[in-house]
Model the fold of this input.
Amino acid sequence: MSGSGSVTVTQKLQQHQQEHQQHHFESSFHLSTKSSVSQKSYSACKTSSSRRLQTTVKTEKGQEVVKLSPLPKRAKRTYLAIDMDKEVIGYVIPVFRASHEAVRGLIESHEEDVTEEGINYVAMRNLFVREAREAVEVKKVEKQTRTTHIREVAGRMELGKTLEEWAEFRKKMNPDSLTHLPEFIIKPRGQTVWEGKTVKLHCTVAGWPKPRIAWYKNNVLIDAKAKPEKYTVENSYNMHSLEIKNCDFLDTAQYYASALNVKGEASSVAYIVIKRFQEGEEAGPLDPKPHGFCAEHGVTFRTTIIEKFEVAFGNEGETMSLGCSVIVYPTVKKYQPEVVWYRDSVPLKPSKWVQTLWSGDRATLTLVHLNKEDEGMYTMRVNTKSGFDTYSAYVFVRDADVEVEGLPVAPLDVHCHDANKDYVVVTWKQPAVEGSSSILGYYIDRCEVGTHHWAQCNDAPVKYARFPVTGLVEGRSYVFRVRALNKAGVSHPSRVSEAVVAMDPSDRARLRAGPSAPWTGIIKFTEEDTTVGVVPGEPSDVVVTEATKSYVVLAWKPPMQRGHEGVMYYIEKCISESDTWQRANTGMPVKSPRFALFDLAEGKSYSFRVRSCNSAGVSEPSESTGDITVGDKLDLPSAPGSPVATRNTNTSVVVFWSASKEVKHLAGYYIEYSAVGTDEWTPCNNKPVKKTRFVCHGLTTGTNIVFRVKAVNAAGYSLSSANSEAVIVQAAVSISGNPTNVTLVEAVKDYMTLAWTEPSFNGGADIRGYFVDYRTVKGGVVGKWHEMNHKALPAPSYKAENLKENVLYQFQVRAMNMAGVSKASLPSSAIECKEWTITLPGVPVGLHALEVRDTSAVMLWEPPIFSGRTPINGYYLDLKLASAGEAGWKAAHEKANKGKYMKVTGMKAGASYVFRVRAQNLAGVGKSSAALGPILSQTRPGTNEIYVDVDDDGVISMVFECSEMKEGSEFVWSKNYKTITDTSRLTMVTKGGKSRAIFNSPSLEDLGTFSCVVTNTEGFSSSYTLTEEGLKRLLDISHDHKFPVIPFKNEMAMDLLEKGRVRFWTQVEKCSSACTVEYVFNNAIITDNKKYTVNFNKSTGIIEMFMDSLEVTDEGTFTFNLVDGKAKGTTSLVLIGDEFRALQKKSEFERAEWVRKQGPHFVEYIGFTVTQECNVLLKCKIGNIKPETQITWSKDKIEIAEDDEDAAKIERKDGHLTFNIGKCVIKQEKPKGKEGKKATAEDVPPPPRAKISKADKGVYDVVLRDERGKDKSSFDLTDAGYQAVMNELFRVIAHSSSDIKIVSTEYGIILSSSVTYYNEELRVGWLQKDAKISVSERVKSGVTGEELWLKINEPTEKDKGKYTMDIFDGKDGVKRVFDLSGKAWEEAFEEFQRLKAAALAERNRARVVGGLPDVVAIQEGKSLNLTGNVWGEPVPEVSWTKNDKELLSNERYQLKLEHGKFASITITSVTTADSGKYALLVKNKYGKEAGEFTVSVYNPEEEEKKG
Done:
């Protein structure tokens, strides 16, 4: 051990005595514990002294020392540590197997007992220590006489007796004597039981304090609480039991019962052996077992698994659920079976990837985020106390889609091995798909648990599927993932591995072993022993464990001499034939006894050795490994043997192959398949399988495919095996079922005719015949069976001849197909061979169904063997629902059917029916045939109907296709349900799953019902009825195909192109590369020349002919004649008369236009537009303009010069010319008068002109001219042109009008609408209630600026209603409506009255209207007389104030009001005291007003003095 102290094991008596002298330095607890140990030491020596023999041993010095003999083998186990001289030196810690929780419970439950023990230990410790020391002390013995020796022995015996008395006394004094180790009074006994039974182990344990019991299975603690359905643990009055329920083979093990208390541990073992029910070869853990009787519940449980999951397919990243319903019978209250899921026979445990659910009757397994590791055979096992049942199905996991085409898919099965302190080996398996190129190598990533950072472990990709990862940090946990690399790029990462801890394997083993026992003895720590500071020894057994082209892995054993320190290592390498050793790990020594070396030269030989090191130094090197050549030790596996593919089901194939002969460490095999004729290989499995048999599922029925296999190990892929023989994916052929209903249809003296029903299951192949056996019955005793026919019978009936009259016979029948002979049918009843006397016909035979659909089916049968006394003249077909009783039979038709077939219609889809048929002759109707059915009225998936085809040669044929073809399947054609043998009318051609019946010479002789049946299938058939009308239609189609016409998408057409060129063209729907065209004009063939240019684009089917111009001689008929093989087509275009002349003019015009456009020209001729702002613009677009091109505007042939006022209205921008007619141009001229002279009215600029007026009428021209030519465009803005412009202006104005608004005034109500611009020629009308309003003094309409209004003065109730404003827009008019009623009228009328009252008040309000100055200056002594004009209705009250104080009329102030209009104030002889602020106040009921003025009185003399 390493640490500050170490446990010292004393081996000499002197050291033991020295330790005893140190007791006074120890704590009381330590002393009490040590006393207990001493007491045990003394007791052990005392007990054994009487049983052991004394021996004398001569030492090197000749002294004889008395030694005790070794402990007897049957001595009771002790936990005292005894040295070589049998001295007590410490306490041995027992191995403890319980959990930490159990230990904590034991310690807590006995804390009080430990406390009580310490009290008596303090009182008795000295006595116990002294006596213990005396009892074990070894004495030296000198040579004595016999008498002396006997005397001493007797003395010692007396002393021993005394010590025993003292011991009895101490037991009474010391409660520690009551505590003792656990002891098994009754040990558990081993048992052997049958599988499915219940086992119970019992034991009785004594001990104080009361021990705790734990049960172990193969040293693994049994947690009964976690698995209550499996284990039950009971403890009662020191009786302990373990019950194991529903035992299976895996319960065979060693079971330990471990008893533990504070004094120590005791254990006992019992062996449980589980025997199987059956003898012979041992079954696997998932093999079904017979159910046994459960004594616990008194029943035998039987399980039934229903609603089973099928073979499943999933993609990586998806979530998949598998489930089955389980029925357990009988039902026992509170009993539930155990459901265990397996993948490839390995039990699955719940994890983040796997979730299980048992709902009481359904078991579900959910696979979260599928990966290829999840692929395999999944098994659900249901365990009951009577046995178990299983069900299995395979789950396939397809690779996730790659981001880039050609990338490899992710590797799988990443695992960690051989983990050490700084090193781990990561392994994986190669994927099934390498991508567009072979895999170049793999990248390994690691991530420390708890983080999300992935670090790449290797710089260069490794080819080997195994890689040592170094540089790990001790004590940390890591997960790993792998990515594959090919030329296209890097794949998705694999699923991460399980977490692995970087730690020493010995530490890992101790952790897995579980906790040790609680502290109960004395362990003393002292200073480091002498091993500290010792240089370790050299390592041993250095070997190369792995060698590849990329790396070499070394492993070695640690040195024996290493002290208590940790040991690290240096690795050295030496190139072969060289004596120079180089250190491989120059940076840090490694802690693990393994190391991976990289960067070695491939093909060279190296030697390796290892040195140990610690703080004391570096050891000597180990022995060299010898020369090791760098290269792959593991070779690629050899190719597997050729696979053999056999049919299995309609979607699966079983593949067998022989294993690779040369392969090591096989990872498994990948199986691939490819359709015959292609080179595209698809993997069958994405997880390698180790067996040499595999069932490939998910295949397409009817495809013809081959298989190949390749092996894989860590070195890579093998070569692919040879391809298997091609196999068609379809169900395998098996032996058919047995026939049924063997009945007698006719009997004569020496023969009987038998009939039976064909097997319901033909085994996937047609029934080739039947074999009949017979036996006699005499007195109820049956004889042996004998064969009646040695050659297979083709029909389900047989005439048994050479029989004996009046003898009873029994018959049985076997069916035969290509797989073999079936089991025999049930024997018929005993039939007596005697002649029948009946006249009715026998029962029809061979009743079977064809062409079963949702609502119909065709029934066919054969006539009875025995037709009665007269010939058969008809048949009756009956049917009933399968669920109906005998009363449910009903006839399918009323009149007797003459034929031996009938189509039943009107069936209910999805219902099951039963059929029977009866024959009729003149004597009557015979018995019914054996019932056929139940038959489900449902169209089988994949069923096709016969269709009629007419090929390009006009050949008429009927075609039937079947996708369910099997080996040996054939198409059988019939007419009116009789097999066609005469090929003069029809020729049958079959290829693959398609058969064609070709009419040689269709005529009325071919009318009828044609049917086709595919043998060796599950009844695939169809029929087609050819009627006279249908035949006529087919003959018409045949004629069209024999003499085909090339179809045209459109007939010949003509287009006029630029320069006046003419294009004649047409387009055909389809044509071949051999199609030719003949161009004809007036019966003359045209060729490609200067006048005519022809073109035929066969890819688009467009045929063209171009002419530069049309001349008078070109009048006539143009024709295209097409020939494509035997197909022909003709299309023509006639150009004559007026039509030709009109086209000729257009052509000439287009050519003239082209010539015009070679120089400056108008792309768009001059026209007009009215903007939203009501500006009238003349616009044109020009093209092919150069800088020197002249552009001239004129009006009425008068050119508009640059200095003209109208020139400012012309703009040119982006190839457009505009003339803004209404643009206002203001000339900026300097005033003619002198500076500072006030402008006169003549100098004020005039108001903006109208947008357009009659003055703007005229003809406007624009001319473009340069050296290339000229072009002219005119616009007539007179009469019709002017009216068109005005109408457009009116339209813009009308549509710019706003909604009608209402405003109230003191005079009435105003309705108004604003427009962008108003022209005096615009007609606006107002209507009230859709009637035109007559203008009067009270109701007026008008325009103010851009506002159109209607004024209603003094409105009354009659003015209420809907008002409409009608604005002329050049055509009809735009109407704006306002409803002046209701709330709108009330609010407007109320506002009118309020404003009217306010206006009246304002008019009649008292006010000063004039006459008073603002300031009056008057000389002192003079008289002041001021008069102010006042107004008011009624006449206002008048008053005067001076400095805000009212003046009263007196001698000094004379105040007067004359005529109610003139108010005057007179002040005689004013003085300076009269100066101040005066006001004339007027007031009436409507208001008041003040006229203020200031009076200033001055003295001339004083003014002069101041001056």
